[in-house]
Amino acid sequence: MFGAYRLVLALLVAVSHYGLIVHGFNPGQWAVIGFYLLSGFLMSRQFKKLAPQSGLRGFYIDRALRILPLYWFVTCVSFYFIRVSWTDFAQNIALLPLNYAPFTHAQIIVSPAWSLACEAHFYILVPLLVMAPSRVLHLLLFASVSVFCASPWLPANAFWAYGGLPGILFTFLSGILIDRGEWRSLRAIYVLLGVLLVVFLAGKSAALKVPTGININVAIGYLFALPLTFALARLSPKRNWDQVLGLLSFPLFLDHVPVRTVCHHYFPSLGPAETLAVAVFSAAVLLVAVEKPFDQIRYWARK
Length: 303
Prior knowledge:
single chain; about 300 residues; mainly alpha; globular; about 0% strand
C-alpha cells in the first residue's frame, strides 16, 4: 500500500517548492529521500518479477515507458514558458546529463528532473545490484555513506550529499535490503544515520559553521522513510483508492513547478494553496491523457 504514501511525498516536494521551508528544514528533500528508498525496494521486486519473463531488455523498456513519455511531454510543454538554449534542451530530453548540472551548469526546464535523472542512473544499475550478494551491497552501502559524510568538504557538496548517486546510493540500497529482509544491516545503518544527524546538527552550529544543511535534511528523510517503507511493505492488500492516489504522484511531481510558473504569469493573485490545487488537477489530466495510454503499452510490452 504505497500509493497514498507516494502522493504525500509528491505533495511535500510541491509545497517545499511553493515556499514551505522553515529554518532550513526542507520537507521536499525529506520526500526525495523517501522516493529513493522506496524505489530501491520496488525496483528490487520489479526486476525479479520481469527478468524471468523478458530479461534485462524487458526491464529497461518497462522503466523507459514508465518515466520518459510523461517527462518528455511536460518538458516540451514547459519549454514554451522556460526558454533555454538548444544544447540545454537536448540535455533535458536526454535526462541523464541533468544529474551533472552542478558541474555543467545546464539549465533544467523541469526543476525536479535532476532527481529523476539520479533515479534513472539507479535503474541502469538495478540488475547488477539486485543480483549482487549481500556482502557486496553492504560494502557499497557503507562506501556511499562515507561519501555522504565527506560531502561538506567536497566541491559542489550538494551533489555528493544529495544530488549525485555516489553519496546517495545508500538510500536505494537500503530499499533493496528491506526486500531481502536484511534487518541487522538496516538497524546498523539506521543507528549510524541517527548519530550522523546529531553530528551534522552540531557542525552547523554557530561555532563551527560547517555547510551540513543538506546532510541534515537527508538524514531526517532517511530516519523517517526507512521505518515507513518497512511498515508499508508489510501491508500487502492492494486497494483501488490507494492505487489511484499513487498514480497521481508522478505527474504531480513533474508538473507542480511548471504550473506555478504559468499561474504566476497569468494568474498572479493565486496563492500557494490555489496553485497546488491547479497542479493536482493538471496532474489528473496528465494521468488520463498521457500516462495511462503509455501504461497500456508498457503492460502490453511485458507480455
